Amino acid sequence: MTENTTLKIGIAGLGTVGASVVKIIQEEQEMLAARAGRAIKIAAVSARDKSRDRGIDLSGIAWADNAETMAENPDIDVVVELVGGSEGTAKNLVMQALQNGKDVVTANKALLAHHGAEFFALAKKNGRALAFEAAVAGGIPIIKALREGLAANHISAVYGILNGTCNYILTEMWRNGLDFETALQQAQEEGYAEVDPSFDIDGVDAAHKLTILSALAFTGRPDFAHVETEGLRNVSAVDIDYAAELGYRIKLLGIARLTPDGVVQTVAPCMVPEESNLAAVEGATNAVFIEGDRVGPTLYVGAGAGGNATASAVIADLVDIARGNVPPSGAFVETEKTVPFDSREGRFYLRLTVEDRIGVMADVTAVLRDHKVSMKSILQYGQGGAKSVPLIMITHKAKEAAVRDALAALAALDAVQEKPCVLRVEIPGGTEEI
Amino acid sequence: MTENTTLKIGIAGLGTVGASVVKIIQEEQEMLAARAGRAIKIAAVSARDKSRDRGIDLSGIAWADNAETMAENPDIDVVVELVGGSEGTAKNLVMQALQNGKDVVTANKALLAHHGAEFFALAKKNGRALAFEAAVAGGIPIIKALREGLAANHISAVYGILNGTCNYILTEMWRNGLDFETALQQAQEEGYAEVDPSFDIDGVDAAHKLTILSALAFTGRPDFAHVETEGLRNVSAVDIDYAAELGYRIKLLGIARLTPDGVVQTVAPCMVPEESNLAAVEGATNAVFIEGDRVGPTLYVGAGAGGNATASAVIADLVDIARGNVPPSGAFVETEKTVPFDSREGRFYLRLTVEDRIGVMADVTAVLRDHKVSMKSILQYGQGGAKSVPLIMITHKAKEAAVRDALAALAALDAVQEKPCVLRVEIPGGTEEI
Questions:
Q1: Which residues in B112-147 are b (16+ Cβ under 10 Å) and which e?
Q2: Are strands A285-292 and A155-161 parallel, antiparallel or unpaired?
Q3: Residue B205 to residues B85, B110, B182: CA-CA distances in angstroms?
């Protein structure tokens, strides 16, 4: 294929992102041709409902009633998969397209999280592009930064705010003192959360994205099964208040970190210092730190979703393919393995609800000492005759497993009256507090 | 040249960055070969002093007594120019190398700011790479983000903290209440500022980098002559205090923004809201916002200098060249022109020192009204019998030229006792306050 050949694409899925891709390609033909070195043309599209008005002009573009037929269509060089879902049409289409020697661009994080290892291998075997800038952190070119921009680095960690819905909810809880349910309802009313929000607020969406980043940084193979995932449902307004009192904000973070045992992957609500760059990231914005051994910590911030921002990433992939810039789908160097989460070591926020009587503090601290968990800060509130009081602690660095065991022992104490709350403390930017 | 051919490079300049490049290429041969698709080998090096111990092993590498001979050396595919300076050896070497059909990687912002237009054209004519990721914001892959990652966007603005020395000084002034001279001295003692610091603190270094970003975003041709440059020397501790009182921090920003008249380029101390991402960037870190029409505002943060971080960017360019990913040096689309700075419109912080008597406020506000400059906030301090008091104002949006004229008229008032201080107010992230 010469530089002057038109790149012909087929777009499967015409939701918000698909419609934006069509619109931008049509409106910016000249600019994109200049950047790509050749014209990019939409040869065919496909969606469930042909009659729906999407505010885009589809005249002169072939309509595929069945998206999967695009994989066979000789008029298509690149299949753009925007159908979504980790099985069914999306999976079949991507597999068939790669097998038939077509390049693929996808925004489908679920698909890659579950089947990425297989697809990366298939793309490699067939010498085709499988590009997915749009699958992580919307329009921020984070895949390109990780795979190309930091090519001189061994990566030690990739982590950040990967889900805009959760960050919106946490921002509203913090800013306006809302409880989780109220903030969620507001997010739904304002279009930041789906009617069924579980995919976002349970951390699954962030875990999909983390799996992809982790594969690029470390393993070459997305390994969703090894992501320890905890969502927002247990984050309460009181913990946001105590965090603020201690100088922290609560953020849902996806974290993939290289430990001596292997790569640990987790999605969980975490406390970050209020002066850190991640604390300053508010609303539906995404923010990702990449730590390289040569470059140090680097941070990337921008819109995590939205039709135009995501389409921007899809089209950047198309321009790359048109220009012949096709790095391997997975990592260039696939050396590391994922390991269970217990290998994490870090600091923790613990909140216990305890009886307000003499000796309780001694019991609690004895349990922690026995599990080799030591304290950095303690907040204790007497409440003037209340039967139970909150006891808030931040630990020094401790092993995940040690803290889990200590919490089980604490929960068994008579004086401890509710299930203890635990949040991880993360210090972004590579500066570890002592 | 096939994929399996070794990429042979010549490195001119073995300062901190050059030595880091040598070291990383030697230590990471296997990783880099995997990422580049072929081996990267150092064929020759050159520096002023052959005998100096740089902590690197140069055995088996040819030594060029005269760096410029590398441009003629048939054993070299890519010349890495780390000599520095906008004239002399650096300029001759880059020009000769491109003319002789070699690719060039450089970290030399001064060279590109002054001669980039000529070199971009030369690289294009000869079909060679001229890569310069290391020239702006150290290890942050900002050139790649701007040119490749956001290829689907028209850029409306590129701006940020481009000089680590200045940001270190401003951070120390703010955090520890130091005056400028003391903070500068501390920066020199700690190695963040040169013995002759003028290049950094007068904003020249930031202006060089801004010129390059502006060329990529808008014009295709670095145009250093049209950067309005103001350094840190006039930033006083009292302005940092008043800024804090009004909810702002002072940062030295480089700003290239598309206006209806063309591209306005400026480097100046600016006030940014304390809750903004740029306010959270402390010490010697760099941070750059790119605003695209589709993706919205995106932010990139990381080390702006240092041997390893800068070497990381140099090597990323080498890997790109090895892989054949060679975008044009300048912008893909060269549509805009730079225009004089007067076209800027924005908000301003004004500090006057005025006589403490009745009628002064009326005189001052009348002058501003006559120049169509309206006030958003005013702070006035009576100082119990002091002859002069500070009068601090933040304007609504106003034209640069109108404010300059108003300031001249204010300075001419009898009651105004010192040269008025003016700082620009910038609201990062595309959210314009009303």
A1: bbbbbbebbbbbeebebbbbbbbbbbbbbbbbbbbb
A2: antiparallel
A3: 11, 8, 21
Provide the β-strand partners of residue A419: none
**B434 has a pLDDT exceeding 60:** no
Topology, domain A345-430: Alpha-Beta Plaits (3.30.70)
Q: Residue A434 contacts by C-beta under 8 Å, 6 or more apart in sequence?
A: none
- How many beta-carbon pairs under 8 angstroms link A with B? 191
Average pLDDT over chain A, rounded to whole?
92
Q: Are strands A296-303 and A345-355 parallel, antiparallel or unpaired?
A: unpaired
User: Domain-by-domain residue ranges, chain B?
Assistant: 7-135, 142-304+330-341, 344-427
A372 is catalytic: no
Q: What is the predicted ipTM?
A: 0.93
Mean pLDDT of A154-166: 96
Residue B304: closest C-alpha in chain A: A295
CA distance A158 to chain B (A): 14
pLDDT for position A332: 59
Contact criterion met (CB < 8 Å) for B295 and A303: yes
Mean of pLDDT values over B126-147: 95
Q: Which residues of B touch A301 (CB under 8 A)?
A: 277, 298-301
**Between vectors from CA B261 to CA B258 and to CA B262, what angle results, nearest 5°?**
45
Q: Give the pLDDT confidence score for residue A90 in this predicted structure.
A: 97
Tokens of A206: 């962030």
From chain A residues 143-172, the ones with a CB under 8 A of any chain B CB are 144-145, 148-154
Q: Which residue of A has its CA nearest to B24?
A: A152
CATH of segment(s) B344-427: 3.30.70.260
The token pair that represents A308 in the structure block: 């135009």
Cβ contact (<8 Å) for A139 and B297?
no
- Please tell me if residue A77 touches chain B, with a CB cutoff of 8 Å: no
Give the full edge-to-edge strand order of the sheet including B62-63. B62-63, B40-46, B7-12, B78-81, B103-106, B130-131
Q: How far is A9 from chain B (nearest CA, A)?
A: 16
Superfamily of domain B142-304+330-341: Dihydrodipicolinate Reductase; domain 2 (3.30.360.10)
Assign B332 a pLDDT band (cuts: 50, 70, 90).
low
Measured between beta carbons, the chain B residues lying within 8 angstroms of A138 are: 295
Instruction: List the 259-288 stretch of B: residues with Cβ below 8 A of A.
Output: 275-277, 279-282
B139/A303 CB distance under 8 A: no
A142-303+328-341 topology per CATH: Dihydrodipicolinate Reductase; domain 2 (3.30.360)
**8 A C-beta contact, residue B40 and residue B33:** yes
Q: Do the Cβ atoms of B277 and A139 come within 8 Å?
A: no
CATH of domain B7-135: 3.40.50.720
Q: Which of B91, B209, B397, B399 is catalytic?
A: B209
Catalytic residue among A91, A209, A251, A397: A209
Range in A97-111, A247-261, B339-353 with the lowest mean pLDDT: B339-353
Residues in chain B with CB shorter than 8 Å from the CB of A294 are 20, 24, 139, 308-309, 311-312
- pLDDT (tens digit, 9 = 90+) per residue, B24-64? 999 999 999 999 999 999 999 999 999 999 999 999 999 99
Q: What is the per-residue pLDDT for A434?
A: 37
Distance from CA of B366 to the nearest CA of A (A): 39
Residue B4 pLDDT > 90: no
